[in-house]
Amino acid sequence: MMKRLQFVPLALSILLAACATAPSQRPHKPVAIAAPPVTVENGIAPHAELVVAAPQTTDLWDQLRGSFGMTDCDADPAVLAWAKRYTHNPEQFESQLREALPRLTYVQEVAAHYDVAGEFVLLPWIESYFQPVAGRKNRPAGIWQIMPATAGSIGLRVDGHYDGRLDVDASANAVMKLLKQYHDEFHDWRVVDYAYNAGEFNISKLVKARGMPPDEPVIPKWPVRSVTREHLTKLLAMACVVREPARFGVSLPTLPNEQHLVQVKISHSMPITQAADHAGISVDSMKSLNSAFRSDMVDTDAASYLLLPANHVQQFRDALLDQSSLVTADSRLTTSVGSSAALSVPATRSPTATAPAKTHTVKSGESLWQIAHLYSVNIAQLQRWNHLHGQTVKPGQVLMVSEAN
Asked: Tag placement on the chain: N or C end, fewer CB within 10 Å?
């Protein structure tokens, strides 16, 4: 859970609440997997933050392990104890993790973009099990369990219409930026976690008074609350399970490419029910994926995008095009009343007509991952459409980025 926000004259003090305790060792620099993102094409001004689609590799867990920056399972008995507690009911653990996987995968891509240690991808598990918890007045909310005052300090809008703490994209970007700032200051991911839980100001004072903690013990023996030590313990324990799932008798679920969350730009507000119908998903699913909107409207003044499963993006965009065509036709009829033009309604799209596949010419510095983001498709689809056996593309190469339909 997120605790109180603290401010300092020269540095931002933020206290993001959590529920745990314990240690970790001085880390190596995590491996950055993702390339800088680009926005989903939809004829709309680009969003300022990260837009995330499917990861570059088929194995999320290998990718996550490769980005870990802290200690392993056996560094402290408390870490191992918590790992066993998390997995004491393997079936329940796997079910919870499977439910969390779309959001976890999205957060992993954001963390990689900011070069944040992979353990922090699992932070929402410690806070909320990746559930978009709606916050009551002056209570923490979202998968990160952020307090309202903290939300304002890290740039998340919270009002009666929209709560950025429940926006997976906006909140992940805000938290990962903060963690990166902490690491730039402290250069130790263990201390970063302490600062996240206990507040930057408090931890900065400890560093000034005691210096940076040694590598051993893994859990820094500083005069902090037990919940702060436990927070780090839980984080390392969950990372331990990801490192060695067989050790705890569990299997890590996989997420098919078509179920990865993709950010899709929208140009106008609409009812949630209409958005769900356009995408071909249930209203409950649309609300769950986009729970930042507090009313029954998708308000583009608050956020001009939706998160959708990748395999529903094209249907949603086609529905928007069809709606736009109908609006144009109605407008022409209205302005042409009394003329022969009123009898001529432009066709939207013939169901039998075949539209040619879209193509994209690779620019210098572009990656397959970036191009997949740009067109709201999966890397696996690009590989299949273009008969690619890897992820290497060359400037000037022309790629199919959609199927003919």
From this structure: C
